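Let us begin with a simple case.
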Amino acid sequence: MSKKELNFKRKEKKYLILEHSFDQIKEELEQHIPVQIFQGENCISGIETTYMDTKDFLLFREYLCRRDFRFKIRLRRYKNDGVFDECYLVELKVKWDKMSLKRRFTLPARLLPAFLKGENLKKEIKEANQGFSGAQKTYKIIAQLIELNHFVPVLRSSYQRIAFQKKTKHVRVTVDQRVTHEKLLGKPETATLDAVILESKISGKSPKWHKKMVNKLSLLRQDRFSKFATGINSLYFPQRGKYNFNADNEADYPMPDNLLKSIELINKVIKIKEEPKQE
């Protein structure tokens, strides 16, 4: 696996594509920003993301409540030229003050069962993340969050992605297609997402070409959009509708004590100016 950045802080904008094909989007973007090739020669890579949550879907409910501060834990691996990477990227993704912050560490795939069982992998993680600043601290905090909240794998999402990024890394655009969700709790089941998703991840001011591209391609800006939420809706709560990102009744979702403790733990890794108050 190539060495990837482990820490990010940037604004994200998500769009659904209805009127143009995947190839048309690729052709338009290539006029403004180069394609990023992860490995090999194929510009389109496969991604498999496993999402963690409690058995009663605490993190999903937190997303629906639109709290100012929320987080998710996911394990991601890439497939290039038909072969999966030998490592997962285990990621803590935090939403705070309209920003997206990420902390990651690499986990050899052979260690995944041990990691999910909560075994101490400090030595192995140190060896696998040599040269990556903060990786061991991120491993420690994620392991604590999993133990504290009894997180388990609940959803696996697979899709194809093409990414565009300049050397400055200030602007990154990804386009995802053929999204398939797999249920990991209870009876096995799958669901597909009939949409192409474009996501802009921008640090600083948006370039002029970006706005022109959005208008030219009639991209539909999404105030809220989440693959995680579409998968949970589709497979566990189909009566809600896959694109329903709102809580049925926010009063039914008080912030539990474990979540407040989780925020305190996260603040040790990602410094937040003030901790969110219980609603």
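The second case is a distinct protein. As before, the sequence precedes its structure tokens.
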Amino acid sequence: MIILGSTGSIGVNALDVCERSGIEVELLSAKNNVELLKKQIEKFRPKYACLQKNDGVLGANLGDTKIFYGEEGLTEALSKTNSKKALNAIVGFAGLRSTLECIELGKNVALANKESLVAAGKFIDVSKITPVDSEHFALWYLNRSAQKIRKMTITASGGALRNTPLSEIYASSINDVLKHPNWTMGRKITVDSATMVNKLFEIIEAYWLFGADISYDAVIETSSTIHAMIEFDDGVTTAQMSEPDMRLPISYAITGSATPNLFRSIDLVALGSLEFRAIDDVRYPVWRLKEELLRKPLSAIILNAANEIGVEAFLDESIAFGEVANIIFGSYEKFCHILPASIGDVFALDLEVREYARSLIKA
């Protein structure tokens, strides 16, 4: 097994599943968490490991593990592996190249990197993809009926600001935005949850995974117990419910089944009730882009690039939280008429949108 992004929450949970299931880990990669990567190498003894930058701490080898560095190093390490399955949990657009390389090498990809499908879904062989997002896992889990599907609905927690007074959202602090009510996640995806960009990403992911002839939507379910629902043509709706534990979709993606004795059953009496809310485009202004993105899914590369720049600026305290949406809207308006015709166009447009988004911050 290959674990890309092994020091993030998805990667850590994936390694837990591998350990419980007796799966050998061949390659680990991380961005900059040197200490955790070192501990993972010492525990799992992979043949190869890769760190984004060479800081001199790991050197060329750590025990029997050969160390690589940077994008080129990761490409070389991947080419040496024999594993037929890779979990890609790299954060952001940076994970796209690894998804493409893994598929090119004949590997199946357990995909936690949303941006791969958001930015380049048209150019990716989705038959080689197993979704790791809890929502898409839930849709896959439910999608085993011969009945024609009318609508797929994924759920959202509402993020850290779901109960914040509207007048206070624009100037929300980093600490406020990062207090996710249900999940422990990385900083960027937690911000994306608060803006609802994350759910736009997941809508586009579902479009590429399940097809264009289905209606897609999302609704807030505050407990994160229901992960997705499918409405069939006969009017019946089915829902997938489980504890909010990412090891469940990871386990299915890696092993094809649930790891025994890992997940608790839901206690419906203890749960008591479920609360559903509509996604309000006043609280979550970027949600206004949903139908436009479904009409032109190739334009989602613009959303992703502008969002990465906006979130980075917010976390660097260069802009207010409310400016993230303004950067997205400004960039989308500028570039929405440009649709990539090849994977090369995707990378070129990504660079152009980022440059423009940065200019909006400076302005």
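The mean pLDDT is 93. The longest strand covers residues 149-156.
Keep these points in mind for the review questions at the end of the chapter.
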